[in-house]
Amino acid sequence: MASSKAVNIRLPPLPTIRDLVKLYRLRAIRQLSQNFLMDERLTDKIVKAAGNINNHYICEVGPGPGGITRSIIKCCPKKLIVVEKDPRFLPTLELLQEACKSSMEMNIEIEDIKKYNLEMGFEGAPQFSWFEAPPPINLIGNLPFSVSTHLVINWLQAISEKTSAWKFGRSSMTLTFQKEVAERMVAPVTHKQRCRLSVMCQLWCNVQYKFTIPGKAFVPKPDVDVAVVTLSPLKYPMINLPFKMVEKVLRNIFNMRQKYAVRLKLFKLADVDHTTRPFEISNEEFARICYAYKVICEENPGIEDYNSRGPKKSLEALS
Ligand code: SAM
C-alpha cells in the first residue's frame, strides 16, 4: 500500500548516464528513434509527474541507458519492471539492478512492450475495485513517438475492457509524446487540434498535459519538442461500448466518410445537430452518437461488424 511519506533511496556512487553511454558505446540508433535524457533534473521531473510512487509497482517502458530508471529507483517503489527492446542496454540496467537490490525488486525484461504481458508482470500487486482510489501501479516511459501513440491506443482498449494493468484497478500512465500529439490528446471541444485521438483519450481517461521538454534536452536532439502527459482512467468512463465500435464510429465521423442520409439519421437519433463539424462535437455528444450507432446496428443486423473495414460493413453502408 502506498504511504504518503516520500522515501528516497540513496544509490551508491555510479558513473553518470553520459559516462555509461560512452563506456558501453551505446550510440543512439536513429532508426529506432532513440533519444536519451541525460539531465537528472528532467528525469526526476518526469517521475514526479507520476505522483507519489513510493512502495508502488512500476513498469518503465523503454528505459534505454536508465536515466528515468534512476529517478524511479530514488523514489523507492516496491517493484520496478523495465521493458526494453534493445539488448545493448542490459549491462547498464543490470548495474542499476545491482545497486538497488537491497531496497527493492527490479526485473529487467528484454522484450517489445507491445508483446509484454503486464498482467503477469504485476502479479502479486494488490487488486483494487474500479470505483476505489487508483491502485499503487504506474506505467512510466519515454518511448519513440510512433510506439507511444500506438501503445496508448492499445492501453485505452485494455482500460475499456479492464484487462492487463487495469485488471488491478485504475492504474495511471505517465508518458512522453511529440508535443503536437500531446496537444491533440488534451484538445477540448472546438479546439483546432481536436481529433479522433482527443476523443478516444478523453472518453476513458483524465488526460493532463504536464510540461514540455525542449528537443535540445535529448541526445541526439530530435527535430521536435516533447511533452509529458499523464492519463488517469476515469472512475465512470464516458462510454460503455466495445472499443472497436467506438473507434470505428469516430474514424468515420472525423473522416466525414458517412453518407449525408446516414449522418442525418445517426445525429438525429443522438440529438446532435447534423451540421456540427467533427471538432465541435463534445465528448458527451460523441458518446450519444456511438450509442445511436449501436441502436441502428441492432435494427439492421449484418452491419454491426465494426471490426471490419469492408465497404459493406461499416457506417458508410448505413443508408
Ligand atoms: N528512457 C530513455 C531516456 O529517456 O533516456 C530512453 C528513451 S529512447 C527515446 C526510447 C527507448 O525505448 C529506447 O531505449 C528504445 O530502445 C526503447 N524502445 C523502442 N521501442 C520499444 C518497444 N517496442 N518496446 C520496448 N522498448 C522500446
TrEMBL record:
Stated family: Belongs to the class I-like SAM-binding methyltransferase superfamily. rRNA adenine N(6)-methyltransferase family.
Gene Ontology cellular component list: mitochondrial matrix
One GO-annotated biological process of the protein: transcription initiation at mitochondrial promoter
Main localisation: mitochondrion
Domain Ribosomal RNA adenine methylase transferase N-terminal, first and last residues per copy: 42-235
Enzyme class: transferase
InterPro entries on file: KsgA/Erm, rRNA_Ade_diMease-like_C, rRNA_Ade_methylase_Trfase_N, SAM-dependent_MTases_sf
Coiled-coil residues: none
SMART domains, per database record: rADc
Pfam families to which the protein is assigned, alphabetical: RrnaAD (PF00398)
EC number(s) reported in the record: 2.1.1.-
Keyword terms, alphabetized: Methyltransferase, Mitochondrion, RNA-binding, rRNA processing, S-adenosyl-L-methionine, Transcription, Transcription regulation, Transferase, Transit peptide
Annotated localization: Mitochondrion
One GO MF term: rRNA (adenine-N6,N6-)-dimethyltransferase activity
Binding site for S-adenosyl-L-methionine: N35, L37, G62, E84, D112, N142
Name of the protein this chain belongs to: rRNA adenine N(6)-methyltransferase
